[in-house]
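From the pipeline queue, job 12 of 40. The input is one protein chain; the requested action is below.

Action: predict structure.
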Amino acid sequence: MAGAQHRTSCRSLFEQLEILPVPCQNILSLMNFFINNWEIFQTNSSIHSINTRNKHHLHRPNANLSCIQKSTFYAGIKIFNSLPLSVTILKMDKAKFKAVLRKYLHTHSCYSVHEYFKCKDDL
């Protein structure tokens, strides 16, 4: 399709063809769910009145069971909280948020969720 050799890495081809790897597609769909159902989540500032640097982050409820800690709900909160501030401040404008998130994921093109968490730079 792209005329590449058999052993060529797909990372640059994905960026060129604007194709998201499967983990990035998973992150994108999970964040779309969060944005479309924003009213069921609480931020840290709604839980307590202390003005902290993470007040805009989503609050993760305390859970002792590993099945809950490994759930999609928990993972989604962790993924959202690790997004750069320039993306999370757009959470009320769904169209802009989705566009900026897609651009961010295209720029970083992570092949695993673990690789996504290592990525700390902004747009």
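Job complete. The CA atoms of residues 44 and 50 lie 9 Å apart.
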